[in-house]
Amino acid sequence: MEIKWVEDFIALAQYQSFSRAAEFRNVTQSGFSRRIQSLEQWVGAELIDRSSFPPVLTPAGQLFREVAEDILNRLFDTRAIIRTEKRIGGKSLQIAAGHTIALNFLPAWLKALSAHFGDVRARVVPTNVHDSILMLVNGNCELMFAYHHPELPLHLDPAKYEHLTVGIDTLMPASRPNLRSAPMYRLPGTAKQPLPHISYTETSYFGRCLALLLGRASSAPALLLHYESDMAEVLKKMVMEGEGMAWLPKSAIAAELDAGELVPAGPPSWNLDIELRVYRDASNRSEFLDTLWQHCRAVLQSGV
After folding, report:
1. N or C: which terminal CB in the chain sees fewer CB atoms within 10 Å?
2. Between β-strands 121-126 and 92-97, what pairing exists: parallel, antiparallel or unpaired?
3. pTM of the entire structure?
4. So what's the architecture of 169-274 in CATH?
5. Lowest mean pLDDT among 66-70, 148-152, 291-295
């Protein structure tokens, strides 16, 4: 039995809707339903009466909810005590961020933060979007950095999770240059000579961004999948070795573009701008976190 199954069950009891509870828990409805079924199998009884609308708890479900809520509250209270004892001393931050953000944005951001606040000790956990969200929702970090596009929202309750837009990045096609400094692989390619495409996995956030961008194109480019990964840094390495072209975040290849080691593989019409956001749990009233948040907001408003 997993704690997340119990949290799913409590969310379902509160929302009385599989779709709304799944959205709240940031999981697909089919995945959410499977987890509820797994919990029922572990308990050995049906907890949800699915014959009614909206779904309601069975007598077994009502009994389980009472005990489950009490146990979860005690577990989380104990965890909070332990985490307080384990926290880094002084001004400190637990940060979850995507790998690209952790490598290309956070070092300069933390340096600027230290210039204002003095010594700030940060523990950065590079991870994928799904795990970053789980860290934020489960209280395992104070700040979460993630990319955002209005057509690909993260489904975080804005009343519970505040955010600031701290930058704009651009997903752009890139290629090694040829001897004339033109791209070795240039969009859109042709049916006879499709471009070797180094791509993201479909379920990654950049993969979804790329699918959105290509879905908007007036005509589909001629691409031949050569390699795929969910990490932009892996794609970048393959492009640097001349293995093909890929859409890469501009922040990850700024130095290579300036040095002429990489060049755009197509005009700006093939680019997609995405926000870089920082999120916090609004219920976390840490004095240092509040002060930092207000400082970040003031800096953004002033445009400095």
Report:
1. C
2. parallel
3. 0.72
4. 3-Layer(aba) Sandwich (3.40)
5. 66-70
